[in-house]
Amino acid sequence: MKILVTAKRVPDPEQKVKFKGNTLDQSGVNWQLNQFDEYAVESALRLTENASSGNARNGEVIVVSLGPKDVQQQLRSTLAMGADRAILVDASDENLDSEIVARTVQKLVEQERPDLVLLGKLAADSEANDVGQRLAGYLGWPQATFACSIEVTDGGKALLVGREVDAGVETKKVTLPAVVTVDLRIVAPQAVKNGVTAATHAYADGPRYASLKGIMAAKKKTIADSSLAALGVAATVRAKVASVDAPPARKAGVKVASVEELVQKLHNEAKVI
Amino acid sequence: MPFSGLDYYNVEDLYSDEERQVMQTLRRFVDDEIMPSIGRHFRAGTFDPAWPRRLGELGALGASLKGYGCAGLSPVGYGLIMQELERGDSGVRSFASVQGSLVMYPIFAFGSEAQKDRWLPKMARGEAIGCFGLSEPDFGSNPAGMRCSAKRVGDKWILNGEKRWITSGSIADVAVVWAKTEDKIRGFLVERGAKGFSTRNIEGKFSLRASVTSELIFEDCELPLDAVLPGSSGLRSPLECLSQARFGISFGAIGAAMACYDEALNYTRERAQFGKPLASHQLVQQKLVDMLQAITQAQLMVWRIGRLKEAGRARPQQISLCKRNNVKMALKCARTARELLGASGITDAYQCGRHMCNLESVYTYEGTDHIQTLIVGQDITGISAFQ
Ligand SMILES: Cc1cc2nc3c(=O)[nH]c(=O)nc-3n(C[C@H](O)[C@H](O)[C@H](O)COP(=O)(O)OP(=O)(O)OC[C@H]3O[C@@H](n4cnc5c(N)ncnc54)[C@H](O)[C@@H]3O)c2cc1C
Q1: Which of A67, B138, B250, B371 has the smallest number of CB atoms closer than 10 Å to its CB?
Q2: Is the alpha carbon torsion for B238, B239, B243, B246 positive or negative?
C-alpha cells in the first residue's frame, strides 16, 4: 500500500505562546510535530510493515508538509521513525489557510497516486479540523474522520474504519483510494490491522521512538523540495485572522473559613452538590 | 510533565539534526520508561532487567561504534545519550557507559574478529551484558599496582585475583578483566560460568542503588588461549577505555545537573514562605543563577570536547578536565537543589537527593576528582604528583 501522510509543525503545546499583533511571535518557539500527525505517521507505518517479521516494509509511506525550510527537522524525525521519503512545500505559516493546504495536498495526491491519505484529525495550533474533509471533497474520494481503528479488508481494496462518536464506536467501510483522519486512540496496541502482521500482534502503546539507527538511516532518505507555484496552487489566503485575544486571566479564588461554608458554597453557588 | 531541558545559550543550535533527534528520542524514552519507576528501583536497590533490551532496541548501547549492529553516532550524539540517561538516573547511565565504553569499546578496539562477531551485535541489542574489571580491593586510584594475574599454562590461561566495585558484575555475561601477565597488563574476556570464576554483590550502597556493583573472584580460573584481547598491551589499554567513559560521564553529569536545576526552579517558584514564592528571595535567585551558569559552561565544554574528539584531536588530559569540571559542578547543583527544597529535598518523592547520592560515586569512579586534577596538573607542569 502506498500512503501519503500530512505533517505540520506546531508550537510546543506546553510552552506559553506570545503574539505580535495577530500573528504568533515565533522567536523562542519550540516547534514540534503536531501530535495527531505523528499518530498518522505511526498508523501509516503499522499499515505498511510486517510487525511479526522484524517490521519488514510492505509498502511506501510519503510524508508531506507545507512550511519553511526548518520543517525539515520535523520531517527528518518522521523518516527516522521509518517513513520512506518526504516532500516539503515551501511556504510561510502566515500565508497558509486550510484551503491552500488542501489544494496543495490534492496536487501531490494527483502526482503520487497513493492508495490512502492519512491526516491528523486537526493541528494543535489552529484546531481547524477541515483539511482532511476538504481534500476528500476535492479528490472525490470517500473519507472517514476521527479514526480510532483501521483494518485492511477485501483483499486490500477497502478499509474498515472505527470512529468514536457520542453513542459509541461506529464502523465505516471505505473503498480505496480514500482519505482518513486519525484520532488519539489510533495508536493503541491493536488499533491497526493490516492483514499481514499477525492479528494477535500488540504494539507498544503510542507512536514509536525513532531508534538511533533509524535516525542515521534517515540521513540518506530524500526530502524533495516543492513550492505552491511549482504545483500550480493559488497562494491567496482567504481566511483572515480578525483579531487575537489572550484568554482572560484567571480570577483569584476565595478562601473559606470552615467545611460548612465550603459545602454551602458548593451547593448554592457552584451548584455541584 | 515531560522534561523540556535547559539550553540558555542555544547550545543545541551547535548540534547536528541527528544529534538533536537522538537527544529528543532519549529524552522521551527517559520520561516514559525510566522516570515512572526509578524512585522505586532506587529505594529497593534494584536494576530493572528490562532496561538493557529496551536500550538495545533504541540503539543506545555502544552507539558510537561503527558496524556490528551499532548506530555509528558522532561523539556528541553518543554524549547526548549519556546526558539524557543520567537526567533520569546515574545508575542507568552507568550501565550504558560500562556496556558501551568499557566493554564494547575494548572488544572493538583490541579484540579479534571472532571476539567482535561473538559479542558486539548481542551487546548492542542488550541481549548480552558486559562488565569491566580494573579496580581491586587494594588498588583503586593506582591500578598499575594490581595483583590480579594471568599465567600461561599449556593451552590455557590461569587467572587469579579479585576485582572490586565492578558495575554490572554479577549480571554480566562477559567480563573484560585486566590482569598482569609475565610481561605486561592485558585484557581477558571471562564468560559467566567459567571454571573458578564467581561474583558477589556489594550491599549497603547509598549511591547508584539502581545499578549492580559487585566483586569478581578468580580462583585458578581457567580460560582458553583465545580469551585474551590480542590488541591489548599494557596499562594504556584500560586507560584508553577510561578516556572513552570519562567523555560520556562529562555529558552525563550535565543531565543530572539539569534535572536538579529543573526541580529546584519549579519548587521555588511554587512554594511560598514569608508571603511570597521562595524564588522571589534574592539568596534563592542567586543559587538558581549559579546553577544555570555552571550548567551552561559545562554544556559548552562538552560540545567543544565532542567536536575535538570527532576530529580525532581530543587528548585524554582535556577529557579529564571535562570530567573534573562537570561532575563537581553536578554534585554542587544537586546539593544546592537539595538545600532549596528544604525538608522535601531529603525524601525520594523528589529527585535531587537521589542525584546527590549518585553523584558521589560518579565523583569517585573512572578516576577520582583528585586523580583528574593530577592528570591535568602533570600535563601543564610536566611534573607527576601521583607518587
Ligand atoms: C558505584 C561504583 C561503581 C564502580 N564501577 C567500577 C567498574 O565497573 N570497574 C572498575 O574497575 N572500577 C569501578 N569502580 C571503582 C572506582 O573506579 C574506584 O573506586 C576509584 O578508582 C577509586 O579507587 P578507591 O575506591 O580504591 O579509592 P582510593 O584510590 O583508595 O582513593 C581514596 C581517596 O584518596 C585519594 N587519592 C588516592 N591516590 C591519590 C593521590 N596520588 N593523590 C591524591 N589523592 C589520592 C582519592 O582521590 C580518594 O579521594 C566503581 C566504584 C563505585 C563507587
Answers
A1: B138
A2: positive
